[in-house]
Amino acid sequence: MAVSHSEALDPAGPPCAGIVLAAGAGTRYGMPKALAEGGAWLRAAVTALRDGGCDPVIVVLGATGPSPAAVDLPDGVEHVWAADWATGLGASLRAGLRAVARTPAQYVAIMPVDTPDVGADVVARVTAAAFASPTGLARAVFRATPGHPVAMSDKHWTSVYQAAVRDSGARTYLTGNDDMVCVTCDDLATGDDRDFPATPHG
User: Fold this and answer.
1) Which helix (H) or strand (E) holds 130?
2) What is residue 126's three-state secondary structure?
3) Which of 29, 72, 103, 191 has the most other CB atoms within 10 Å of its CB?
4) First vs last Cα of the chain: how many Å apart?
5) What average pLDDT is seen over the chain?
6) What span, in angstroms and rounded, lies between the C-alpha atoms of 67 and 70?
């Protein structure tokens, strides 16, 4: 398992799509996180991927229903609906990968909707590491803890798709892969998942 601190050196790398996983009901948060803060988290994830070099960016919807009208999708963003979203994170990841497989992309960067402080600079750093690695596999690390985005070449997509069941997402495949490049991004973001609403200060 390698560790990289490298910045993106070549913004014109191989074609890389972006997936925003935004299908969950957000039970602990109290609403689907695609709707959190008036959709600000969703827009932040899309902007991070888009400005980090991903095209197209595909948002996976679920609990909000199949219509994109239920969320505030930025112009030019594609969407898919994971009809089986309630079975777990794996369903939304599979839906996203199916959509990406229909594009010319050779790489994909995957972001959840609930890491709003992860910006384009993190995405660019992680995708650059994936492009430069013979394995084509990299992920952001914050405070020595694996985080997002995860970037991977198309040679991994089938295996990740098959491993994405219930709530595991890509975790099973990634955990067992010693060729992952871990990209330290502590200087750019916290990478924290937001599972609960902010507590008001009184």
Assistant:
1) helix 120-132
2) helix
3) 191
4) 45
5) 89
6) 6
Model confidence band, residue 197 (pLDDT cutoffs 50, 70, 90): low
Among 81-85, 110-114, 142-146, 171-175, name the one with the lowest average pLDDT. Answer: 171-175
In this structure, what DSSP letter does residue 183 have?
A: E
pLDDT at 139 (0 to 100): 95
CA distance 2 to 14: 21
- Dihedral class, residue 103 (left if φ above 0, else alpha if ψ from -120 to 50, else beta): beta
- Cα(50)–Cα(55) distance, integer angstroms: 6
The amino acid sitting at 33 is K
- 66-82 pLDDT, tens per residue? 999 999 898 899 999 99
Closest among 130, 77, 135 to 108, alpha carbons compared: 130
Report the C-alpha gap between 11 and 197 in whole angstroms: 36
Q: What dihedral do alpha carbons 108, 139, 28, 63 form, nearest 10°?
A: 10
**Contact in structure between 129 and 6 (CB atoms under 8 Å):** yes
